[in-house]
Amino acid sequence: MIKEYAEWRESNGQPYLEVVAQDPFTAGLLQGKCLVDQIRHMKHYVLHFIIRYAAKRQSYKKFRELARKGYEKFFPSRYIEEMNGVAEGARVVDYDDILVQNCFSDIIYGHLIPDNPENPLLRKFDLGCTAFGIINTQTSDNIPKTLIGQNFDYPGYFRRALSFVHLKSPDKPEVFALRLGGMLCLAAGRNSCGIALTVNAVKARVQADLTMPVTAKARLCLETANSAEMCYKIIFDLPIGGSCNFLLADNTEIIATEVLSKHSVKQNATTTIVKSNTYVTEQLQQYLTRPNYSKQRQFYATGRLDQMYENKGGMLNDDDLLELLRDQPIICRKKRLQPKTIAFITRQYFGTGNPVDNPIGRVPF
Question: Which fold has domain 5-122?
Fold first, then answer.
């Protein structure tokens, strides 16, 4: 029998929650008890979002109904157990609140935005993450074959709902990932076997199918995949619930995807790759609600990475990646009243806040 516990730990001043549990319900219960504030804040932000951006067409009750009737059946049973545990541990919410949090991005980017592409308020709701992938030409002790990392840009008030969680479960790799409230996992994390993920939301006009939410797909990848290709198969075994971009990495390969409902453009990286909140594939441009949005950041970040890669002979490390993530004001964003960098992660490093003004934590494996 292993000792089950949840404890807050620190790495260079950056907090993360370490959870050890033998079964899904206990894992959820322990997380719920320790993430009460984050879960409560996330519920508040979901309510705020509905009032601010969707009050004429939606209500929190409708969000709960859609999550229960539309999405719940796609969750693996063990994640249903874990979400029940989270709700019981937190006590400030119920199971349906946790379910809504896990379906939130799919509802927004798979249904609400595609149904209302010209809504002026929804057009102002922007997320802005910049993700980098690197295949090194040579390796050494501090230069791995693959590097992957991203800044996580949201409206600043979401920071109080953020946490990094290090989850240890029997017969599964250790998982270290970013969370919002009671989410199972954001697709911004890595595991102890070298699998790593990044995600960028994209505003598109095509409504998505009801399917397994990205929070569950990301967690499945980190718990069960042993290669980037297996991550790809897990994610695309069912339709995607919203428009987005993924970077999927193992120790030797990086797969980049641009995703639009049932369609995806797949690219195996050979040197460098950058993903932001837009598509670069020509045939997907017509589906963007704002074709010019994020293009400057996309091209600027690509140029910065390619120049660094060339200058260093195709041999970069996580410190180089941090330098890119710190690049102000286009990649690392700090303006008030706009999406700003509120978290960052690479294979080695992580932190809440931006990587310029905050300490740099080290991933615990």
Answer: Penicillin Amidohydrolase; domain 1 (1.10.439)
